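Standup notes, protein team

Yesterday: finished cleaning the Lacrimispora algidixylanolytica set.
Today: Sugar ABC transporter substrate-binding protein structure.
Blockers: none.

Input for Sugar ABC transporter substrate-binding protein:
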Amino acid sequence: MIKQEKLLWSLVAAILVILFLLSSTDLIIKEKKTDIYPVSIIISDTSDEYYTNFRKGVDKASEEYNVDVNLITLFEKGDAVQQMELLKREIDDGASAVILAPAKPEECARLLDGMVLGSPVIVLGDVFANDYVRGSISQNYEEEGEKLGKAIASEHTTSLPVWIFTEGLDYGYNRQIYDGLSAVLKESGFSIGIYEKKEKETFRNTIEGTVYPYSNEAIIAAIDVESLDEVAGIIAGSPVYKNYIAGLYGIGSTTKILTALDNGIIKGVVAIDQFDAGYTSIQKAVEVIHKKQEKEQIMLESYYVNKSNLRESRLEKLLYPID
């Protein structure tokens, strides 16, 4: 009897050892494999300085959808050819999808038509008529310009000219914003001037011209975030400019720009929910990787923000998202 018990216990011990070995080698209890999706984001600038809130949304979605994000900047701002070369490189290197903020949309679309890609593309802007582009996260750019124009028209008389500052009308979707803004201003009776940044000091020299030698007043509308940031810095740096710039308005929002708005340097901006744009772009990238959606263009709403409504809860959540 004792021998039988010993034999039985030995058999049980052997079975337990075998089960342990089998489970530890993943032959019985298989761990669920988590798929990681490599997604590249190619922006149109040399720095991601103006993408802080967008990146917060990207990081949040990446954590939820198991996405490994590679955010890529350009060597030269606005270089569409380089941007499309980077897109091809990222896909060839294994990106399951690419999110593209086109430097020059028309040129990027033309270049894409001549490419063969192995992964889908999501555009940050108007959707391209290309089979590789499976969707876009966009906004009504012309409407944003109209909102800015209506704000200026409601707060100023037509005796003052409106100077429109931009990094370039062909950069991003600036031309559409300009079309909406200029149409409203002209209809309201304002005279306008367009100043594209051809040289480093273009904006500063133009602003200085209000003081020397003519002492003229003007309103400035900066239709891209880079221009708005630069002009706000110029005006803040010299108190005398505030006597000649009747109002600074613009497109875009960063913490720095919102601080200038709160301090009265900027009168008003048109902004979108950048956090939502970043989050949704990753969400849609994962969906197209799984082929779960037809091509679609998601439109984000824009808002006019000034000092009086800056702290409203609905806008505060949009402009100051929590990580």
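Follow-up from PR in the comments: The mean pLDDT is 90.
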